Amino acid sequence: MQRRRLLALCLGALACLPLSQTASAAQTLTVGLIPAEDSQSMLENSKAVIDTLQQQLGMPVKPFIATDYNGIIEALRARKLDVAYLGPFSYVLASSVANVEAFAVAETKKSGRSYYKSLIITRRDSGLQSLEQLKGRTMAFVDPSSASGHLFPSAALQKLNIDPNKYFARVIFSGSHDASILAVANKKVDAAAVADRILAAAVARGVVQQADLNVVWTSPDIPESPMVWRRDLDPALKQKIAAAFASIKDVQWGDQGVLNGFVPTTDAAYDVVRDTAKILKLDLKAMK
């Protein structure tokens, strides 16, 4: 309930922006950020990107972090946001219910790639080293709309004829990858599904020790989280936004670390995510 109130307040604040402060009036660009980390960390780690955008566009850029993926999607659908950083599945969901399109994706210096993987992790001292051993245990997913934190691992389990809601003693949604990692580390749950790059970032920060964890499952490649814009933005503004993102290099970007830069992407790059949704028999439009 508290999270819902916070989301309502945040959306209310955006709703109160006068039209003269929207991107359509070339005054302020509003950018939504998914809660991959806690909100304060996400803001701090996105500052360099936001600052560079402001410099390149010559207009203020206002970041907005919702309490969950659906908060960003709702803000896009209500035209309260101009640009957003979404997870792969939350983008596919947004593209089915809001007038948005992927246009760029981050490429990290560390990996030099624009894809990542989902992992299911356990504590090493738990003795849990396989999916089979997780039967009757507790499991943490991130968010119902998280690709690496829910959809891809759930599809993999279903291919093995495993229904997560029946297979595990208890399933929770933690709200963020960091929270899921800590839930395992602090023995609140037996296992969790998280993004490999976010786990690597948590290890680098000393939040957890790699030696304390087991990886019991690894997904195929998942296309990286895209930057999206509303299709109804002015074409000239879109051109400026695309050029501004293309100019961003060697800066810190959320959980992804230091970037080589943002490279172009298309809606079709996320068809693999749509195929995963089909495995799960998800009706995207019915989810909103």
Briefly summarize what is shown.
The protein is α/β, with parallel strands linked by helices.
Q: How are the secondary structure elements laid out?
A:
Elements: H1 2-15, E1 29-33, H2 39-57, E2 61-65, H3 69-77, E3 83-85, H4 88-97, E4 100-108, E5 115-116, E6 118-123, E7 138-141, H5 147-159, H6 164-167, E8 170-173, H7 177-185, E9 191-195, H8 196-204, E10 213-218, E11 222-223, E12 226-230, H9 235-246, E13 259-264, H10 271-279
Parallel strand pairs: 1-2, 1-3, 7-8, 7-9
Antiparallel strand pairs: 3-12, 4-12, 4-13, 5-11, 6-9, 6-10
Helix pairs in contact: 2-9, 3-4, 5-10
Task: Summarize the structure in words.
The protein has 288 residues and is α/β, with parallel strands linked by helices. It is 38% helix and 22% strand. It has helices at residues 2-15, 39-57, 69-77, 88-97, 147-159, 164-167, 177-185, 196-204, 235-246, 271-279; strands at 29-33, 61-65, 83-85, 100-108, 115-116, 118-123, 138-141, 170-173, 191-195, 213-218, 222-223, 226-230, 259-264. A six-stranded mixed beta sheet has the order 2-1-3-12-4-13, sandwiched between helices.
